[in-house]
Amino acid sequence: MNQTLPVNAELLELLMCPSCRSRLALDYETCELICTSGICALAYPITDGIPVLLMDEARKPL
Description:
Layout: H1 9-14, E1 24-27, E2 32-35, E3 43-47, E4 50-51
Antiparallel strand pairs: 1-2, 2-3, 3-4
């Protein structure tokens, strides 16, 4: 299965949550980057393949 990532894998390794500086994980279902920290756990949208790492655009996962 050849599935393209919405974000380059190398870029994903470098990205951190702007709120708490934890690593981000890709959620394939929602096409969002999710903070792996239990403290903030914010979800950042990916728009046209570009992560939007603005805290004003982030949401708390359900």
